[in-house]
Amino acid sequence: MKGKHIILGLTGGIACYKSAELCRRLMEQGAKVTVVMTEGATHFITPTTMQALSGQPVFTLTQDARMADSMAHIHLSRQADLILIAPCSADFMAKLSHGMADDLLSTLCLARGNCPLAIAPAMNREMWANPATQRNVQTLLQDGVYLWGPAYGEQACGEVGAGRMLEPHQLVAQTHAFFTPKYLQGKRVLITAGPTEEPIDPVRVITNKSSGKMGYAIAQAAFNAGAKVYLVSGPTALATPYGVQTEYVRTAREMYQVVMDKASQADIFISVAAVADWYVSNYSEQKQKKQDKAGLSLEFAPNPDILAEVAALPNGPWCVGFAAETENLSEYAQAKRLRKGIPLLIGNLAQHVMHADDTTMVLFDEQGEHPLPSMDKTTAAQVIIRAISERYPH
Fold first, then answer.
1. Which NCBIfam families does the UniProt entry name for this protein (predicted)?
2. What pTM did the predictor assign?
3. 267 labelled binding-site residue
4. Residues 149-160 pLDDT 10s
């Protein structure tokens, strides 16, 4: 979103308190934010607050003397890359659907020309479910307005249902996705992420140091690029990527079962998870006591090779693998790519990336190896999705 100019419109509703954080988060992503408020919005949060957060003048009046010709509704929309109304009340949705223009924000939306418009509804569940509101929703969608939300949950009135405004981080994710080129539009992408846990007894496991950050970032980047994403995740402390259907597992065999069930439905499979090579075959049903002077003896059996088995499917998805090595990256990564029979493999040195926010990657394909500079994992995920789209046989 760096360099993008977003008009953030606020209409009357308690969800205006979320708009303050939304403004700040959009700016953290590099966007310039200009706030336009209805009179109703000013009863919930002040223009002074939004001006301090955005660093830009806040507009509330159709006839604004700060514009030489008092045409704020024209000039603001012509400068913007997106108009986002959050919160968008039921009343304002009705105005939009019927082309009404009785204040600056509604006039600006009517005069916006080619500037895209997105709304984040916020209202009581009964107001959202009302047939009139639903008719307005359909009209707005037909008119090309983007509908982001609403969410389901507890509302300010104490009732529970659909009508909550999406949270600021969700709206930032939607905005990010809006501006992302749709390299994978309509593709079905299956991704694994995180570590696996192999139990020793009911309270102890063997695992690895994978944080899941790279896999989650790739899942979000794939969604942003227009893909329908299904993420199979081992245990992590990360929030579920926005817009991504996620299933949580613990062991490698559980991950294998889910992936094999979903693989036939996927166009692309990205195996990012750090899957354990072995599981404990002499698992104890009871907690092992450390007082046992004989010590603890573990026996191991091999886990299924998820990536190799998916790559071997006769009509399976196009596969991407990962290799985290501690030495001889080029030799081991290329050997793994050939052994698995996959067209693209991303390699890195494990000691430099586990739990880190940055990564240094090398792409391995049939043309050889392609080293990339160090970058944060969010950026790296975008680079990977672009690389996949360039190689995927559309």
1. coaBC_dfp (TIGR00521)
2. 0.88
3. no
4. 999 998 888 888
